[in-house]
Amino acid sequence: MEATVSSAVLQRDVPLHRLNTFGLPARAAWFAAIDSQDRLAALIATPEWRYLQRFVLGGGSNVILTGDFDGLVLHARIPGRALVAEEPDAWLVRAGAGESWHAFVGWTLEQGWPGLENLALIPGTVGAAPIQNIGAYGLELAERFHSLDAVDLETGERVTFDRAACRFGYRDSVFKHEAAQRFLIVSVTLRLPKDWRPVAVYAELARELETAKIAKPTARQIAGAVIAVRSRKLPDPAQIGNAGSFFKNPVVDAAAFARLIARYPEAPHYPQPDGAVKLAAGWLIERCGWKGRWFGAVGVYEKQALVLVNRGGARGQDVLRLARAIQDSVSDSFGVELELEPTVV
Ligand code: EPU
Fold it and tell me: 244 in the Ramachandran plot: left (φ > 0), alpha (ψ -120 to 50) or beta?
């Protein structure tokens, strides 16, 4: 069913099952595909706009839908990718929020602009990447980020956020806090330094390159190695529903770390600049015996305990129930609280 409101198209009662990588069932009371800023502007000008609760959906790879959404889902689909400037020491590359992140990474590498290769194969869209400051294999988006353009959904104004304004942290940004659901990200601009150096510090990536006897990797070889490692450990959402890491790796203070490491000297850990220590949630969860266990349609991936998976028919509440049981068990065994990584709607 479609109702034309001004020049924008609002759809009613739209299933979201295929629009989230976990494959969870949910319906949006209202739905609009935003493929241009003009379409968004037309929608903001409609009388319905201020009465509807809104949710911006990108690739749906980092959301857990727990039920029907009684408002308006804005599906961010703005396309486009371009070199916007070439500075003496860097390329500035921009992509529309609706572009596939992985396809964009591949395109930059084909153009001969290295810098994003460690972030190959991360599911989702370009517009979602800054929200959780995507990161993998020794690199975070923040390190290559220049700015983003967004539309303020309350005022309709266009706003530019530089890196400081995004307040990036580990899997975190202002868009998960005060700015949550306030803005629709239109495009993201990355700064790719010409003085490129491989980032191959992450142990598994280094091992992969070593096995392939690559001593001085090119950016494309790093992308290939990242893709190989990811494909071995992380389920492909096209095959099995999931939202990537379901929990953040917890950061504990020095005293808590000292207690833990005295009991479990083998626990993987990553010291932080401020003296705190990041632990591997996957290791904690595996040690509690959850890896590879199924509870009806939802389970803990057998190759990576940090990932919850849907073998078909899971509902958001089933996923959250399992997540809560895992959190309680890790808390009881290790005194460590796990925080969810995806956004729960
Ligand atoms: N580990 C286990 N058992 C498991 C999983 C992990 O013992 O079931 C151990 C590993 O052996 C290793 C340590 O935990 O010693 C860390 O595991 P891994 O290298 O697989 O990385 P991760 O901490 O599980 C993080 C990110 C991933 C990212 C990888 C690679 C978070 C929450 N997750 O996973 O990001 O791809 O590092 O950089 O930070 C995502 O955010 O969705 C995501 C997949």
Answer: left
**Cα torsion at 6, 27, 246, 336 (round to 10°)?**
100
User: Considering only CA atoms, which of 115, 172, 112 is closest in space to residue 146?
Assistant: 115
Q: What is the pLDDT of residues 96-134, one digit of tens each?
A: 999 999 999 999 999 999 999 999 999 999 999 999 999
The SS3 of residue 125 is: strand
Cα 104 to Cα 132: distance, rounded to the nearest angstrom: 18
**Would you mind telling me the total number of residues written for the chain in this entry?**
345
Task: Specify the pLDDT at position 86.
Answer: 97
For residue 294, what are the CA distances in angstroms to 20, 156, 309, 342? 21, 46, 9, 20
The residue assigned the tokens 């190989």 is 228
Distance 194 CA to ligand 1 centre (A): 30
Ligand 1 mutation pick, 306, 308, 338, max ligand atoms within 8 A of CB: 306
Assign 3-class secondary structure to 184-253.
Answer: EEEEEEEEEECCCCCCCCCHHHHHHHHHCCCCCCCHHHHHHHHHHHHHHHCCCCCCCEEEEECECCCEEC
Digit-coded pLDDT (tens) for 280-301 = 999 999 999 999 999 999 999 9
Q: Which residue's CA is the nearest one to ligand 1's atom 23? A: 280
Measuring from atom 36 of ligand 1, which residue has the nearest CA? 136
